[in-house]
Amino acid sequence: FDKETFGSDYLAIGNFDNPSVLEHSPLSEKAKADMVRLFKDERHYLSDIPIEQREAYLRNITYWTYLKKHAGMADEVMKVMQSSARSVWAVNIDAFPAHAAWREGSPGFGDLNLRREGIGYLRPEIHENIFHFPDGNASVARLLVRKMNTSVAIGDSMEDIVTARFDYNQLDNPKSSVRIRLNSTVVRAQHGKNNLSNPVKITYVREGKAHVVEAGKVVMACYNGIIPGLCPEMPALQKTALSNSVRAPMVSTNVLIRNWRSFEKLGIWRVKCPGSYHHRITLDYPVSIGNYEFSKSPDEPIVVHFYAVPGKAGASAREQFTAGQHDLLTTSFETFERKIRDQLSRILTPGGFNAARDIAAITVNRWPHGYAYGYDPESDQVAYYPNSWPEGKRHWVTGRQPFGNISIAATDAASNAMTESAIEEAYRAVNDLM
């Protein structure tokens, strides 16, 4: 709890369904009781809604509305919960459907059993993403690159990829059957003589100069929302469908600290900070793979992950995404560093942490166009769970149709920002050109 939002700084350690955890917090007595009730999660608050109408109803209200109107949560509790969907969905709960919150296991739905075509179904069990590459999806990309160009790095397995050193000079080697040219921004993809059976001319800008290459087949795996601007000859219907792809901004920052004794002393490894710029701080999961070994002792260095989702609450999801992108454009590294030092100091100083002494390095990963979602302009809704959307509203399906010798991939084409979707859409896009 930060003093700017809740009146005073307070680190609550433990689960919120335990009354003693919040006993000395700055929350009012009603808010404390509401928090315990919410996180005990023993019941739902839709008894006045007919069973057969509950699913449709939850799809048409936000999680914020459900907690405030139906569960009767205090205003302070709403401040705690406002950022609870950011880590997974990069949005505040006032723009997050209640049905999606139920589906992902958010508190407040208790024993709610929704029905679909007369068949009841329950929420799936939620698991932590403990099993992952230490550098995230970067290892997946590195594995693919090394498979296509073996001269880039030594090794041949998942175990050796994390610590493999890449020779970037080999990426664009003329002798390689697969060449990757970095820092080259495509600004146009157009069939020769506007004939869809002709090869595609690709115009890209590198070091301030425009270059043109010709390709028999092209897969566009970029942010789908910009494709209409890159392909002027594309039909209007497909352009409109592609423009309904939206992306959520986010910031994932890695902070290397010289030891994690302060975390151990306080008995914490993950901190949720609902009122702060970084809403979640967590020690790296204990993953060892190949020659990479996690920090085994509190006296050893460790990476601390910081997560932030820019964009203020109080607007639709798309408006929050746009506001967040504008915010990131004007946020300097110095601002991130200042916020990180301040936040860590306020949380960890009681455990002996000293920011000037203990922070060794900071890497800020800004994703102004991060998670990809489909969007319906008529309802102003974002497709968080695309498979449950009506067929006629799945604009990403219309947008991803092959266009002459151009096919379209990326997670936008599935409205699902997961690695497996990126792979599946790439596979489909290649086959579309066969």
UniProtKB/TrEMBL annotation:
Name assigned to this protein: Amine oxidase domain-containing protein
Species of origin: marine metagenome
